[in-house]
Protein backbone atom coordinates (compact mmCIF):
# COMPACT_ATOMS: atom_id res chain seq x y z
CA UNK A 1 0.00 0.00 0.00
CA UNK A 2 1.21 3.45 -0.84
CA UNK A 3 2.23 5.52 2.18
CA UNK A 4 3.33 8.67 0.35
CA UNK A 5 1.40 9.39 -2.83
CA UNK A 6 2.40 12.16 -5.21
CA UNK A 7 -0.26 12.50 -7.87
CA UNK A 8 0.41 14.57 -10.99
CA UNK A 9 2.09 17.41 -9.14
CA UNK A 10 3.11 20.66 -10.85
CA UNK A 11 4.99 23.50 -9.18
CA UNK A 12 5.68 26.92 -10.70
CA UNK A 13 7.28 30.06 -9.32
CA UNK A 14 5.49 32.95 -10.99
CA UNK A 15 5.19 31.88 -14.60
CA UNK A 16 8.23 29.64 -14.45
CA UNK A 17 7.48 25.91 -14.26
CA UNK A 18 9.88 24.01 -11.99
CA UNK A 19 8.20 20.61 -11.69
CA UNK A 20 5.58 19.08 -13.96
CA UNK A 21 3.57 15.86 -13.93
CA UNK A 22 5.39 14.39 -10.95
CA UNK A 23 3.77 11.17 -9.78
CA UNK A 24 5.21 8.56 -7.46
CA UNK A 25 4.02 6.09 -4.87
CA UNK A 26 6.20 5.17 -1.93
CA UNK A 27 5.60 2.40 0.58
CA UNK A 28 6.19 2.93 4.27
CA UNK A 29 9.80 2.11 5.16
CA UNK A 30 11.20 2.62 1.67
CA UNK A 31 14.42 4.58 1.20
CA UNK A 32 14.12 6.84 -1.83
CA UNK A 33 17.24 8.46 -3.27
CA UNK A 34 16.72 11.48 -5.52
CA UNK A 35 19.26 12.61 -8.10
CA UNK A 36 19.18 15.20 -10.87
CA UNK A 37 20.96 18.22 -12.29
CA UNK A 38 21.48 21.27 -10.12
CA UNK A 39 18.44 23.54 -10.17
CA UNK A 40 16.04 20.92 -11.51
CA UNK A 41 13.76 21.10 -8.48
CA UNK A 42 14.88 18.38 -6.05
CA UNK A 43 14.79 20.65 -3.00
CA UNK A 44 11.49 22.05 -4.23
CA UNK A 45 10.14 18.49 -4.27
CA UNK A 46 11.27 18.01 -0.65
CA UNK A 47 9.62 21.30 0.35
CA UNK A 48 6.38 20.05 -1.19
CA UNK A 49 6.65 16.79 0.78
CA UNK A 50 7.30 18.86 3.88
CA UNK A 51 4.21 20.97 3.05
CA UNK A 52 6.31 24.12 3.29
CA UNK A 53 4.86 24.81 -0.14
CA UNK A 54 1.62 23.82 -1.80
CA UNK A 55 1.79 22.48 -5.35
CA UNK A 56 0.36 24.64 -8.15
CA UNK A 57 -1.50 21.56 -9.32
CA UNK A 58 -1.86 17.98 -8.22
CA UNK A 59 -1.98 16.34 -4.84
CA UNK A 60 0.31 14.90 -2.19
CA UNK A 61 -1.00 12.50 0.43
CA UNK A 62 0.75 11.00 3.43
CA UNK A 63 -1.02 7.97 4.90
CA UNK A 64 -4.06 8.92 2.84
CA UNK A 65 -4.23 12.50 4.19
CA UNK A 66 -3.01 15.80 2.77
CA UNK A 67 0.21 16.64 4.70
CA UNK A 68 -0.49 19.20 7.44
CA UNK A 69 0.58 22.75 6.60
CA UNK A 70 2.18 23.24 10.03
CA UNK A 71 5.56 21.60 10.51
CA UNK A 72 4.29 18.23 11.64
CA UNK A 73 5.60 15.61 13.99
CA UNK A 74 5.45 13.09 11.16
CA UNK A 75 8.20 14.63 9.01
CA UNK A 76 11.76 15.55 9.98
CA UNK A 77 14.20 17.36 7.71
CA UNK A 78 17.99 17.73 7.48
CA UNK A 79 19.79 20.11 5.13
CA UNK A 80 23.38 20.10 3.97
CA UNK A 81 24.52 22.50 6.67
CA UNK A 82 23.56 25.13 9.21
CA UNK A 83 20.71 23.11 10.60
CA UNK A 84 21.88 23.05 14.22
CA UNK A 85 21.71 26.02 16.61
CA UNK A 86 25.23 27.18 17.54
CA UNK A 87 24.15 28.85 20.81
CA UNK A 88 22.56 25.70 22.21
CA UNK A 89 24.26 22.63 23.62
CA UNK A 90 23.97 19.30 21.84
CA UNK A 91 21.16 18.19 24.19
CA UNK A 92 19.31 21.51 23.89
CA UNK A 93 19.49 21.17 20.11
CA UNK A 94 17.72 17.83 20.23
CA UNK A 95 15.07 19.15 22.64
CA UNK A 96 14.58 22.11 20.29
CA UNK A 97 14.11 19.68 17.40
CA UNK A 98 11.04 18.36 19.14
CA UNK A 99 9.72 21.57 20.69
CA UNK A 100 9.94 23.62 17.49
CA UNK A 101 7.41 21.35 15.90
CA UNK A 102 4.90 21.98 18.65
CA UNK A 103 2.30 24.69 18.17
CA UNK A 104 3.40 26.60 21.30
CA UNK A 105 7.08 26.00 20.69
CA UNK A 106 8.43 25.29 24.19
CA UNK A 107 8.40 22.78 27.00
CA UNK A 108 7.80 23.69 30.64
CA UNK A 109 8.13 21.88 33.96
CA UNK A 110 7.59 18.15 33.92
CA UNK A 111 7.28 18.14 30.15
CA UNK A 112 10.71 19.68 29.89
CA UNK A 113 12.23 16.97 32.07
CA UNK A 114 10.63 14.30 29.89
CA UNK A 115 11.79 16.04 26.71
CA UNK A 116 15.35 16.03 28.04
CA UNK A 117 15.06 12.34 28.80
CA UNK A 118 13.87 11.64 25.27
CA UNK A 119 16.71 13.81 23.94
CA UNK A 120 19.22 11.71 25.88
CA UNK A 121 17.76 8.54 24.36
CA UNK A 122 18.13 10.06 20.90
CA UNK A 123 21.71 11.12 21.70
CA UNK A 124 22.57 7.59 22.80
CA UNK A 125 21.13 6.26 19.57
CA UNK A 126 23.21 8.61 17.44
CA UNK A 127 26.32 8.09 19.57
CA UNK A 128 26.56 11.65 20.89
CA UNK A 129 25.59 11.06 24.53
CA UNK A 130 29.16 11.74 25.66
CA UNK A 131 29.02 15.30 24.26
CA UNK A 132 25.49 16.19 25.41
CA UNK A 133 26.65 19.38 27.17
CA UNK A 134 29.07 20.52 24.47
CA UNK A 135 28.35 23.20 21.88
CA UNK A 136 28.14 22.27 18.17
CA UNK A 137 31.23 24.32 17.24
CA UNK A 138 33.38 21.90 19.25
CA UNK A 139 32.15 18.89 17.23
CA UNK A 140 33.51 17.50 13.96
CA UNK A 141 31.50 17.94 10.75
CA UNK A 142 30.27 14.34 10.91
CA UNK A 143 29.16 14.74 14.52
CA UNK A 144 27.36 17.99 13.69
CA UNK A 145 25.49 16.31 10.87
CA UNK A 146 24.62 13.37 13.15
CA UNK A 147 23.29 15.95 15.59
CA UNK A 148 21.20 17.52 12.81
CA UNK A 149 19.75 14.07 12.08
CA UNK A 150 19.17 13.54 15.81
CA UNK A 151 17.33 16.87 15.94
CA UNK A 152 15.11 15.76 13.06
CA UNK A 153 14.54 12.40 14.77
CA UNK A 154 13.69 13.91 18.14
CA UNK A 155 10.00 13.96 17.38
CA UNK A 156 10.10 10.36 16.08
CA UNK A 157 8.98 11.26 12.54
CA UNK A 158 7.64 8.61 10.19
CA UNK A 159 9.33 10.35 7.28
CA UNK A 160 12.87 11.70 7.18
CA UNK A 161 13.77 14.17 4.44
CA UNK A 162 17.49 14.60 3.77
CA UNK A 163 18.73 17.27 1.37
CA UNK A 164 22.34 16.43 0.46
CA UNK A 165 23.02 15.64 4.11
CA UNK A 166 26.60 14.43 3.60
CA UNK A 167 27.69 16.82 0.84
CA UNK A 168 30.00 18.81 3.10
CA UNK A 169 31.71 15.80 4.71
CA UNK A 170 35.02 14.15 3.84
CA UNK A 171 34.85 10.68 2.21
CA UNK A 172 35.73 8.72 5.39
CA UNK A 173 33.15 10.52 7.52
CA UNK A 174 30.65 10.06 4.74
CA UNK A 175 31.11 6.28 4.83
CA UNK A 176 30.57 6.16 8.59
CA UNK A 177 27.44 8.30 8.12
CA UNK A 178 26.18 5.70 5.64
CA UNK A 179 26.54 2.97 8.28
CA UNK A 180 24.85 5.20 10.82
CA UNK A 181 21.92 5.92 8.53
CA UNK A 182 21.51 2.26 7.57
CA UNK A 183 21.45 1.21 11.26
CA UNK A 184 19.02 3.96 12.11
CA UNK A 185 16.71 2.95 9.36
CA UNK A 186 16.79 -0.69 10.42
CA UNK A 187 15.93 0.35 13.98
CA UNK A 188 13.16 2.80 13.17
CA UNK A 189 11.56 1.57 9.94
CA UNK A 190 11.39 5.19 8.79
CA UNK A 191 10.54 6.22 5.26
CA UNK A 192 13.46 8.25 3.91
CA UNK A 193 13.76 10.66 0.96
CA UNK A 194 17.38 11.64 0.36
CA UNK A 195 18.62 14.09 -2.28
CA UNK A 196 22.21 13.42 -3.29
CA UNK A 197 24.61 14.44 -6.03
CA UNK A 198 26.52 11.21 -5.55
CA UNK A 199 24.99 8.46 -7.68
CA UNK A 200 26.84 5.64 -5.95
CA UNK A 201 25.64 6.93 -2.56
CA UNK A 202 22.10 7.01 -3.97
CA UNK A 203 22.29 3.42 -5.13
CA UNK A 204 24.08 2.18 -2.03
CA UNK A 205 21.57 3.59 0.46
CA UNK A 206 18.38 3.72 -1.56
CA UNK A 207 15.83 1.03 -2.31
CA UNK A 208 14.90 3.13 -5.28
CA UNK A 209 16.67 5.93 -7.12
CA UNK A 210 14.45 8.58 -8.70
CA UNK A 211 15.98 10.68 -11.46
CA UNK A 212 14.58 14.18 -11.94
CA UNK A 213 15.11 15.60 -15.41
CA UNK A 214 13.42 17.73 -18.04
CA UNK A 215 11.90 15.49 -20.68
CA UNK A 216 10.86 18.54 -22.68
CA UNK A 217 13.53 21.00 -23.59
CA UNK A 218 13.32 24.16 -25.68
CA UNK A 219 16.87 25.19 -26.70
CA UNK A 220 15.71 28.81 -27.07
CA UNK A 221 14.19 28.89 -23.61
CA UNK A 222 15.72 26.38 -21.16
CA UNK A 223 13.27 27.51 -18.46
CA UNK A 224 10.18 26.85 -20.57
CA UNK A 225 9.45 23.45 -19.03
CA UNK A 226 9.71 21.82 -15.66
CA UNK A 227 11.41 18.64 -14.53
CA UNK A 228 9.73 15.36 -13.72
CA UNK A 229 10.73 11.87 -12.62
CA UNK A 230 12.22 10.31 -15.74
CA UNK A 231 13.55 7.10 -14.15
CA UNK A 232 12.63 5.06 -11.14
CA UNK A 233 15.47 2.55 -10.61
CA UNK A 234 15.18 -0.46 -8.37
CA UNK A 235 18.42 -0.12 -6.41
CA UNK A 236 17.78 -3.37 -4.52
CA UNK A 237 18.21 -5.26 -7.72
CA UNK A 238 21.63 -4.18 -8.86
CA UNK A 239 20.26 -0.93 -10.21
CA UNK A 240 18.28 -2.39 -13.11
CA UNK A 241 15.72 0.14 -14.34
CA UNK A 242 12.29 -1.37 -13.92
CA UNK A 243 10.15 1.51 -15.00
CA UNK A 244 10.60 4.26 -17.53
CA UNK A 245 8.18 7.00 -16.61
CA UNK A 246 8.59 9.26 -19.61
CA UNK A 247 8.22 8.07 -23.17
CA UNK A 248 8.08 11.55 -24.67
CA UNK A 249 9.33 11.35 -28.23
CA UNK A 250 9.43 15.12 -28.64
CA UNK A 251 12.54 15.46 -26.54
CA UNK A 252 14.80 18.12 -27.97
CA UNK A 253 18.23 18.42 -26.43
CA UNK A 254 21.14 20.64 -27.26
CA UNK A 255 23.82 18.74 -29.15
N1 LIG B 1 10.98 30.32 -3.65
C1 LIG B 1 11.42 30.35 -4.89
N2 LIG B 1 11.03 31.32 -5.76
C2 LIG B 1 11.45 31.38 -7.02
N3 LIG B 1 12.27 30.46 -7.57
C3 LIG B 1 12.69 29.46 -6.79
C4 LIG B 1 12.30 29.34 -5.42
N4 LIG B 1 12.87 28.23 -4.91
C5 LIG B 1 13.59 27.68 -5.91
N5 LIG B 1 13.49 28.41 -7.04
C6 LIG B 1 14.08 28.07 -8.34
O1 LIG B 1 13.58 26.78 -8.67
C7 LIG B 1 14.57 26.01 -9.31
C8 LIG B 1 14.71 24.70 -8.61
O2 LIG B 1 15.33 24.92 -7.36
P1 LIG B 1 15.72 23.75 -6.37
O3 LIG B 1 16.42 24.41 -5.23
O4 LIG B 1 14.53 22.94 -6.06
O5 LIG B 1 16.73 22.89 -7.25
P2 LIG B 1 17.66 21.67 -6.82
O6 LIG B 1 17.39 20.57 -7.77
O7 LIG B 1 17.48 21.39 -5.37
O8 LIG B 1 19.13 22.25 -7.08
P3 LIG B 1 20.51 21.93 -6.33
O9 LIG B 1 20.96 20.59 -6.80
O10 LIG B 1 21.42 23.02 -6.81
O11 LIG B 1 20.26 21.99 -4.86
C9 LIG B 1 15.84 26.86 -9.30
O12 LIG B 1 16.00 27.43 -10.56
C10 LIG B 1 15.58 27.92 -8.27
O13 LIG B 1 16.23 29.10 -8.61
MG1 LIG C 1 18.72 21.54 -3.71
Automatic annotation (TrEMBL):
Keyword Phosphoprotein part of the UniProt annotation: no
Keyword set, alphabetical order: ATP-binding, Nucleotide-binding, Transport
Q: Where is the signal peptide?
A: none
Single GO term (MF): ATP binding
InterPro entries per the record? AAA+_ATPase, ABC_SmlMolc_Importer, ABC_transporter-like_ATP-bd, ABC_transporter-like_CS, P-loop_NTPase
Q: Which residues form the ABC transporter domain?
A: 4-239
Q: Which SUPFAM superfamilies match?
A: P-loop containing nucleoside triphosphate hydrolases (SSF52540)
Q: What is this protein called?
A: ABC transporter ATP-binding protein
User: Per the UniProt entry, what species is this protein from, by scientific name?
Assistant: Thetidibacter halocola
The taxonomy runs:
Bacteria, Pseudomonadati, Pseudomonadota, Alphaproteobacteria, Rhodobacterales
